[in-house]
Amino acid sequence: MKVTFKIWRQAHSDAKGEFKPYEVNGLTEDMSFLEALDHLNEHLVRSNEKVIAYEYDCREGICGQCGLFINGRAHGPHPHMTTCQLHMRSFKNGDTIIVEPWRAKAFPVIKDLIVDRSAFDRIIEQGGFISAQTGTAAEANSILIGKKVADKAMDAAACIGCGACVATCKNASAALFTSAKINHLNSLPQGHQEANKRAIEMTAQMELEGFGSCTFTGACEVECPERIPITNIAEMNARRTKAKWMG
Amino acid sequence: MIALTGLFLCIFLIVHLSANSILLLPEETARRLYNSYATTLRESPLIKVVSYVLYLSIVLHMMYALRITLANRKAKPQPYLVNKSNENSSWTSQNMGFIGLLILLFLIVHLANFWARIKLGIGDTVGLDASGQKDVYEITYHLFQNIYFVLFYTILMIPLGLHLNHGLKSAFKTLGFYHRKGLRIVAKISLVYALIMAIGFGIIPLIVFLK
């Protein structure tokens, strides 16, 4: 299998980037997309060129580290999938594949296809946790949580923070990420005590970081590998309003 | 604020369309009812207050939309070389600003045709009907004898319908309504509402033209 990659190359955050074409031979349909990039990098090493920088870790779709904008879609052409789960069989022999980094003011490019997502960390620092005494693990049944609530919290907690929601959003809004984190903790008894503070401070940080606002295009929930539904954003709006007016 | 003003404007449109439907009645009845309705609107002090809320809503809706659009553009300074947003979202949802501008264009012409002439007295003086009321029916009827105006009024209801469909259901989410089944019903109501408004407002000028 042979494809042409057209990849964004940028030496460092202040450098001017550009797309560079790379013809790659000897790929198979069973290779993952990242393996195809590894394959290209091996060639670059042998020909003494600088390798393409991109992020990955687990390569099994659960860590949220990888994230590339491939042929006009976050994480490639399929919905609800991480970049590492994409395989070359999704492309045809002879295809040109355009690979871009996530684009958002709050996600500046560090190098080539790697962006700085620490804005997400700073949102988490504003309340994406519960304050509790540490020590030995508490008895699991000391706080009873209904199945419905537990499921809902777990669905929101599934967010892996990959940033595809921001990448695909025309406004670079981080509302899906932030809402998943707020709703996860606020719907559980452990998170109740700081619920209002969390809703206000995490959304405030989200705005401070320079993310845009949600206009409900719905693109984020299509690209989200964890299928976090957009209703989370509506719920976050409700929680924030309640916290501001009645908190 | 965009959601709140938008919802108010959605309610206004229902009243507006109901009034417009008077134009579909036989000519003499339509003239009498339409003109007295217009007189009531002009002279009722309560409706005067509502009309100021309406003007304010339109202005605020546009101002906040402009502000939010500029801020959102700043949040995404560099576009993608290729972006297949049509595969994960509707064209309408991606282009609400542009669609809004088309509606603004319509609104300017619409206000110049009616509001400026009847309320501000700009342009030709407005005639009186048999009972001495301003003959708003005649102005409407006369305007819709011109095929270009009819086409303008009809075609520009397409962006209105698109805008309402996305706007109504989004307003609910912005205001924090997050019941999943409820939102599915809201989406259906938005579609039906948008269709009724677009077809209703769009077809009346055509019918008046063909009368």
Report on the architecture of this protein.
The complex is a heterodimer of chains A (247) and B (211). By secondary structure, chain A is an alpha+beta fold. Chain A has 2 domains: 109 residues, Ubiquitin-like (UB roll); 117 residues, Orthogonal Bundle (Fumarate Reductase Iron-sulfur Protein, Chain B, domain 2), CATH 1.10.1060.10. Helices cover 36% and strands 11% of the residues of chain A. Chain A is built from 9 helices and 7 strands, in the order ββαβββββαααααααα. In chain A, the strands form 2 sheets. Chain A has a 5-stranded mixed β-sheet. Chain A is elongated and about 60 Å long. Chain B is mainly α and 211 residues long. Chain B has a single domain, classed as 3 helical TM bundles of succinate and fumarate reductases (Up-down Bundle), CATH 1.20.1300.10. Helices cover 76% and strands 0% of the residues of chain B. Chains A and B meet through helix 8 and helix 9 of A and helix 3 and helix 8 of B.
List keywords for this structure.
heterodimer; A: 247 residues; alpha+beta; Ubiquitin-like (UB roll); Fumarate Reductase Iron-sulfur Protein, Chain B, domain 2; five-stranded mixed beta sheet; 9 helices; 7 strands; 36% helix; B: 211 residues; mainly alpha; 3 helical TM bundles of succinate and fumarate reductases; 76% helix; elongated
**Structural category of chain A:** alpha+beta
Give the CA-based shape of chain A.
Answer: elongated
User: How many helix segments of chain B?
Assistant: 9
The CATH architecture classification of the largest domain in chain A is Orthogonal Bundle
Over the alpha carbons, how many angstroms does the gyration radius of chain B reach?
19 Å
Considering residues with a beta carbon less than 8 A from a beta carbon on another chain, report the largest interface and each chain's count. A-B, 45 and 34 residues
Helix content of chain A: 25-40%
Unreliable stretches covering 5 or more consecutive residues of chain A: none
The figure for the number of domains of chain B is 1
pLDDT averaged over residues of chain A:
96
**Fraction of residues in β-strands of chain A:** 5-15%
Strand content of chain B: under 5%
Query: Which value, in Å, is the CA radius of gyration of chain A?
Result: 20 Å
